[in-house]
Write a structure and sequence with these properties.
The protein is built from two helices and nine strands. The protein is mainly beta. It has one domain: Tumour Suppressor Smad4 (Sandwich). The chain has a four-stranded antiparallel sheet with strand order 2-1-6-9, with no helix packed on it. Strands 3-4-5 form a three-stranded antiparallel sheet, with no helix packed on it. Strand 7 and strand 8 form a beta hairpin. The longest helix has 12 residues. The N and C termini lie far apart (45 Å).
Length: 134
Amino acid sequence: MLTRGDFARRIVTPHVASVVHDGVALGARAYLALAAGTVAEVGLGFTPFPQTDRHPDAFQFITVHGRPVDVVADLPRVWLGRGLRPLNGDSFIAREVVITPRDGVVDYMVDGDLYASHGPLTLLVGPTVPILRI
């Protein structure tokens, strides 16, 4: 981001989308990022989804809409599980989120793999998967 190259420009370019969570419309807005998680910590102590442990039947959804410099300033808060300040984003627990992009395409990532959805993208809670410890 310091070099102001094409990659950095793509990362900090907001995308306009409408978001509806559990039937509640947030309306159209320019977002830097939208994130969903079902585990509190995503590695190295970084805890963007601290509420997930209390809601096993839902996921935490975060909208990021602040200026890039302000969002970066909030990263220590996010690392500690305190979330973004309201001027930079919102967070809520949901069972369903529908993202409708203004330009018709939602680019998204799952575990580091990139995908694109043409038209609305719906996020839903799936079944709990038991993990066996031996």
